[in-house]
Design brief:
Helix content: 25-40%
Distance between the termini: 36 Å
Strand content: 15-25%
Amino acid sequence: MPSVRQLRVSFRTFGCKLNQAETEAIADGFSAAGAAVVGPGEPADLVVFNTCTVTSKAEQKARREMRLALRRNPEAVAVVTGCYAELEPEAVAAVAPRCVVVPGSRKGALASMAEGLVAARLEGLDPLDELRRLAALASGREADPFAFVPGDALFHSRPQLKVQDGCDNRCAYCRVCLARGRSVSLGPDEVLRRALALESRGVPEIVLTGVNLSQYRSGGLDFPGLLEALVAGTERIAYRLSSYEPDRADERFMAAFSLPRVRPHLHLSVQSGSDRVLAAMGRRYRRDAVLRAADAARAARGDPFIGADIILGFPGEGDDDFADTVDLLERIEPAWVHAFTFSPRPGTRAFDMRPKVPERVAVERAAVVQSIAERGKAAFAARRAGAIVDAVIETSAESGSPAFATSAEYLKLEVRGAPDGFEGACSCRVDAPEAGPPADGSSIGGSVDATATFIRT
């Protein structure tokens, strides 16, 4: 239990894996400074919101949760950062009086503020004044997009290592590039140093993250070169990619993707299966590039987990365009699809594009794609029945309850027979689908994809 004057901090993250990685590093900084990191909804002195601006719903949800958190904890301070805070700081600051905005470009300074905030709390002071002072100081310093060093992985057993930020594309619908700026990359020597530090602590797997990993360029290396250098420079640790652009999944990339310690999991930023829509949205590839990427990944890794992002209801998306998207998905047979509806974002070219697709139609199309995703996940899990797979147990077993793990192929497994308290790398035998529903009540294809049996290694 936190002491009376120990600073209590909770975190709420919206949006992408990169945001999750940055939150994890900030939380570790506060924990190292002596703060108590508490769960969402628990009493807290500081509530950090790492926001997203990809959709208006993400922004609305952030505002709603900020108000709720401060109603529950009237003396708390809301710290709001991330892409929404970068682009609309005035709107964010107006949500509540005890709200301090740290723009997304200054997000990396939050961990360095932890020591001062902890000290202010121990002295019985209101952290609001100290936070405002520290935020003002941070605004005058050069921003460091790579100040997020993976720590003790308070929220995930598979730490995420940020190697790239920003994007040089200017897609018509996206304002993440406006919030995060041009592409920048962490030097390969520093990436390797951080990976070695994680390996030395026994971490079994790293998720490499960025806004657009395919735009990594530093020290004479592109992303495939970085991946090859990481595998060559480490001994045991495995690497997973957060996502990749279809047109950059070329022969050079596939050579690196096929390395044994690179996880057989490729998530493609597809967005649409219609060439007409892709062109209108400023995407730099066409559907053939997606088909080639999926074929090449299977040629390199046999039957890898292939995922995709799809946005439904782009301006002007007709029935024929949607049919092209469904056809593309049926041809690449993804193991999962992240489907969501188009959200017009201020400051983007697509904001005023016509004709608009009615929300009802976009939602109906998203439901169709969701059903494709669920069938694909079930088929992928069924193909693993009886196979022995590498996995990372992220939630340990306790008192006879099962453990929960992520396989190398990115299947979410309920693992039976794992020793109580065991976390980390293991091997599992995937059960046949008729083995029965997961004990936690979730359905296959939902939060758990298959059951498995722990194998001692």
